[in-house]
């Protein structure tokens, strides 16, 4: 029986979203701008990488061709030749340019409602929400209370947090309530506990996630976030591909933050790891373990969290090259009936203003030893990805999207 390996390269957009202007993102292109910057020598970093962006394996799977289809030109260093598999472009119908919206839609469930957001003002959180949170969590107060980048705000407020015991609460253009706290001074379990309380209070506001952002270090210069991030997320409004696979008695391997994104629904095996390379290792391990008919679903978070939000072009380029380098390991492990799908959930152009996601189309690269080559065009919804996976796995069609296989 066939298996599907579905890999989301978090934030790896390829530009060209027709509604980008409504988000202030017209012209944003994560891949395109990284490749253009690298071609001009702007993504060089000693000890990491130099020169043009080199992605031969992704290119062979159709990345350059998909990028050209999406934004009208082939990024420097890539080609229009898709040597194997099917390639195309995913367009999102859900309004949020965030991780849950992108992932739910990929798994066949576009988001039918508007998320709640906190305003671009200070303080950003409603006073009654914070009063109730502080009371129930037994806190001396909170710090932050604004839109911020997570690494910047711990440098700014981390020392005061240690001194006062007040957690750092912040948000972004995404539907999130994030809480940063020190792993030992504040305590990791205590951080998770107060996140659960915050989730109960923010869920009625349709805030998608409360995210625990633990960090270590003793000063602004040495603070560092750890791999113990945890997301407390609203559950998808309908059964996703994961639920449908589980319901049919299949194994569903959720690697990295996948399980959190679907609030654990439809997951039979949860594998955690910190960093793209460890996530890659877990994916290979899952391929060893997975029975016939399994879905292996992995999110590669570093592209977004470590490089996109941090507007780090060289870092993003280096991470793409490291990922590309390992693709042959997955292909070597594939059985004849296995299907590999590489895609993304939104953009996060590291050359763009600010530190938030960018509204973009995403690449869809599909490979199986038993699948012919071809183009699947620009898909009207990411849900086509989930429907194609469902069809490959022999599951009944869902309510949204159409299979391209
Ligand atoms: O700046 P950091 O804390 O990485 O937060 C980013 O990550 C959040 C969730 O992935 C996004 O909403 C964005 O704000
Ligand atoms: Mn994401
Ligand atoms: Mn993000």
Kindly summarize this structure in a few lines.
The protein has 405 residues and is α/β, with parallel strands linked by helices.
Q: How would you describe what is shown here?
A:
By secondary structure, the chain is of the alpha/beta class. The protein contains 13 helices and 14 strands. Strand 6 and strand 7 form a beta hairpin. The longest helix has 21 residues, at 313-333. The radius of gyration is 21 Å and the shape is globular. One manganese (II) ion (MN) binds at residues 99, 304, 309, 357.
Which descriptors apply to this entry?
single chain; 13 helices; six-stranded mixed sheet; 405 residues; binds 1-O-phosphono-alpha-D-ribofuranose; eight-stranded mixed sheet; binds manganese (II) ion
Radius of gyration: 21 Å
Quaternary status? single chain
Mean pLDDT: 97
Helix content: 25-40%
Which parts are unreliable, with pLDDT below 50 for 5 consecutive residues or more? Answer: none
How would the blueprint of this fold be written?
Elements: E1 3-9, H1 30-39, H2 56-60, H3 63-71, E2 86-90, H4 99-106, H5 127-137, E3 143-147, H6 150-164, E4 168-171, E5 176-182, H7 183-202, E6 209-216, E7 224-225, E8 230-233, H8 241-247, E9 252-255, H9 258-261, E10 269-271, H10 276-289, E11 295-300, H11 302-308, H12 313-333, E12 338-343, E13 362-367, E14 374-379, H13 383-393
Parallel strand pairs: 1-11, 1-12, 2-14, 3-4, 5-6, 9-10, 9-11
Antiparallel strand pairs: 2-13, 4-5, 6-7, 6-8, 12-13
The structure holds 1-O-phosphono-alpha-D-ribofuranose and manganese (II) ion (2 copies).
């Amino acid at each position: 029986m066939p298996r599907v390996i579905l890999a989301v390269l978090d934030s790896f957009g390829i530009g060209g979203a027709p509604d980008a202007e409504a988000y202030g993102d017209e012209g944003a292109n994560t891949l395109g701008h990284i490749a253009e910057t690298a071609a001009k020598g702007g993504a060089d970093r000693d000890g990491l990488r130099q020169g043009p962006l080199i992605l031969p394996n992704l290119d062979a799977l159709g990345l350059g061709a998909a990028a050209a289809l999406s934004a009208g030109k082939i990024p420097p260093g890539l080609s229009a030749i898709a040597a194997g598999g099917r390639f195309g472009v995913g367009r999102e119908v859900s309004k949020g340019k965030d991780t849950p919206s992108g992932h739910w839609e990929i798994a066949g469930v576009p988001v039918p409602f508007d998320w709640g957001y906190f305003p671009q003002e200070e303080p950003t959180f409603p006073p009654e929400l914070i009063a109730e949170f502080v009371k129930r969590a037994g806190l001396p107060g909170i710090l932050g209370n604004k839109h911020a980048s997570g690494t910047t705000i711990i440098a700014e407020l981390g020392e005061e947090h240690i001194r006062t015991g007040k957690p750092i609460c912040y948000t972004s253009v995404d539907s999130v309530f994030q809480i940063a706290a020190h792993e030992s001074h504040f305590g990791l379990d205590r951080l998770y506990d107060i996140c659960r309380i915050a989730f109960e209070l923010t869920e009625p506001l349709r805030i998608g996630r409360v995210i625990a952002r633990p960090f270590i270090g003793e000063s602004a210069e040495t603070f560092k976030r750890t791999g113990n991030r945890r997301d407390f997320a609203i559950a998808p409004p309908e059964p996703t591909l994961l639920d449908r696979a589980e319901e049919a008695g299949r194994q569903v391997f959720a690697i990295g933050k996948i399980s959190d994104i679907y609030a654990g629904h439809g997951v039979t095996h949860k594998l955690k790891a910190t960093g793209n390379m460890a996530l890659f290792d877990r994916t290979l391990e899952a391929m060893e373990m997975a029975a016939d008919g399994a879905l292996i679903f992995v999110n590669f978070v570093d592209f977004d969290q470590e490089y996109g939000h941090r507007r780090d072009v060289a870092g993003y380029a280096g991470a793409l090259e490291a990922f590309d380098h390992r693709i042959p390991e997955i292909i070597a492990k594939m059985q004849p009936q296995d299907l590999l799908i590489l895609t993304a959930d939104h953009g996060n152009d590291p050359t763009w203003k600010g530190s938030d996601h960018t509204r973009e189309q995403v690449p869809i690269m599909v490979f199986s030893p038993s699948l012919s080559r071809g183009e699947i065009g620009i898909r009207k919804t990411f849900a086509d990805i989930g429907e194609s996976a469902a069809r490959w796995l022999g599951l009944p069609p869902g309510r949204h999207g159409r299979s391209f296989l």
